[in-house]
Amino acid sequence: MDIATVMGIIAFLGMAFVTILHSEGWAGFVPFANLEALLIVMGGTFCATLVNFPLKQVVGVGKVIRKALFEAPEDSAKIVGIFVKLSRKAKQEGFLALQADTDALEDDFVKRGIQLVIDGADQEFIRNMLDTEIGFIKERHSVGGEVLHALGMYAPVFGIVGTVLGMILMLNSIEDVSAVPRRMALCLAAAFYGMGSGYLIFVPMAGKLKRRSDEELFVKEIAIRGILLLQSGAAPSVVESNLKAYLGPSERAKVRTGDEAVEGEGGEVPAEAESPAETPPGEG
User: Fold this and answer.
1) Considering the entire predicted model, what is its pTM?
2) pLDDT in tens, 120-132
3) In this structure, what is the dihedral angle of CA atoms 186, 191, 193, 196, given to the nearest 10 degrees?
């Protein structure tokens, strides 16, 4: 789960809660429980989104929000560690020996790329296949971001629509003084719901999705580089130095910690796959 996203939303709601409670007590929450305002803003927002986008894309926005909220960023150091270990094993035992490790990988993109190497595909074919897949990933992420941006744009507008509607109803029954506060509550609650949902939830989530997309594509670019180095038969030290160039100092330190980067993804590399040259002098 992405703590920053949840923390930001909860922190604002908590501050609003404390402000209302401190100012008006529990009775201060009553005006915000306005079903008419909620229907106008949320209903209007999603209806306008349905007009703008196909139903399938609008329904899929739930998956987009789940990705922004609950999926942790991909670990670039872990990917580098996987390719260093696999290149070492391939150097000693050949590409066919990587089949079991490939089958155990959780990342389908990396799994497909390494499978192409095992099957004997050339670099140009591998690059074209993986670049095509990245293009479709970008397109999917772009659509999700557009839907969230649209929701963030429409919500404040329908908040204003609710405000105008409440004003019309209030002026229409101005002689009934008892109805004025209720109509005014509709006006202000609609504006609150619209601007709050648009600028607290939808627009920031679109930005978070963009950053998640950039992170995912960055990791996949590292994976493509690693796959092509693996296919070329590069030495493990060359693979490591090339892929570490993508990482910052703290991430590079994680790769140097050893086998943790491979466990859970490709399984442990057997002990016999470790290069004897790596045994420090004087030990054994």
Assistant:
1) 0.73
2) 888 899 999 999 9
3) -160
